[in-house]
Design goal:
The protein is mostly helical. The chain has two domains: about 1-270, no CATH class; about 275-305. The chain is built from 16 helices and no strands. It is found in: Endomembrane system. Its main location: membrane. It is a multi-pass membrane protein.
Length: about 300
């Protein structure tokens, strides 16, 4: 049983790429369809643009993988090998938007086992992207600073921005970040930091401390020893978290409110005074506006007297 689970988490089973691409494309198509339906309710006469919805499905699903290599000075994966991704986007988009009698979207996409199926594929795709782009960033010649022996910010941010490129292109950076750090950025940052520090920081105190902490625990050391190497261990941990996290956020299970990073992020934000600072600014601006109105009223009363 454990061998099957590890094979799944390693994405080393037959047609793993096709499974992940279909899951990612299907998740994107469903998200675009929900947003499109909401827009139609607000503006019933708004025209349907089939090409726009297809582009949105492609960008949300694979925008990060297509555009992030360009930021690293590498050829886009869309140009090098985007056939399967493009085909998956077209198939998923057609099924969700144009199936006969809207059967696929109304019936199949609301079926919980099918939701778990495509969400698992999408999350496994994201997991491989996180640790894959951390390693890819190191191949472009990122150099450490004089204060630490391993380059830290570049590889971590490369993987963290990966899952945010598509939504930023579709919504704009203001709408995407208006409620703070999106969950996409939070889990990408935490998981890519874990992977990079554990596997690539061989001489720095962060990597040594993390490896020592985990391997000195009897249960964890036994589990870690069953994996091929550090990269295999971290990759499976990331994949396991991503699949469980994605399935828990399904409306039929825990729902979109499930966020394991909410409490730590709130504690960190309040500890640094980031939330209070914004609130104080709003309160100061509000008091200034009220003060200005009261002064204006008093001056108008004096004129009348």
């Amino acid at each position: 049983m454990m061998d099957y689970i590890l094979t799944f988490l390693r994405a080393s089973f037959p047609f793993a790429l096709e499974f992940m691409v279909f899951g990612m494309a299907m998740e994107s198509a469903v998200a675009v369809r929900k947003a499109d339906d909401a827009e139609v309710k607000k503006s019933p006469k708004s025209p349907y643009n089939w090409f726009l919805t297809l582009v949105q499905v492609s960008l949300i699903g694979f925008g990060g993988g297509w555009l992030m290599p360009i930021m690293l000075g590498l050829p886009s994966s869309f140009l090098l090998g985007g056939d399967i991704n493009t085909f998956g986007c077209v198939i998923s988009w057609y099924l969700v938007f144009h199936s006969p009698s809207d059967f696929f979207y109304q019936k199949v996409c609301s079926f919980l086992p099918f939701q778990i199926f495509y969400i698992s594929g999408a999350q496994l795709f994201r997991a491989t992207g996180i640790y894959g782009f951390v390693d890819k960033a190191l191949t472009v010649g990122m150099k450490p600073c004089q204060y630490y022996p391993t380059p830290m910010l570049g590889p971590i941010l490369t993987a963290s921005l990966l899952s945010n490129v598509g939504p930023i292109f579709r919504l704009g950076y203001k709408d995407w970040f208006k409620n703070g750090l999106p969950s996409n950025f939070q889990y990408s940052f935490v998981l890519s930091s874990f992977y990079h520090i554990y596997t690539n920081d061989l001489t720095g105190f962060l990597g040594k401390s993390l490896r020592l902490t985990l391997t000195s625990t009897p249960i964890l050391s036994t589990i870690i020893s069953t994996f091929d190497d550090d990269k295999d261990f971290c990759g499976c941990v990331i994949a396991l978290f991503m699949v469980v996290y994605g399935c828990c956020k399904l409306p039929s299970l825990i729902g979109g409110t499930f966020d394991p990073f909410k409490v730590p992020s709130e504690v960190l934000k309040n500890g640094l005074g980031l939330g209070d600072c914004n609130n104080r600014k709003r309160e100061e601006e509000g008091s200034k506006k009220k003060g200005g109105k009261s002064r204006g009223r008093s001056q108008s009363r004096k004129k009348k007297d």
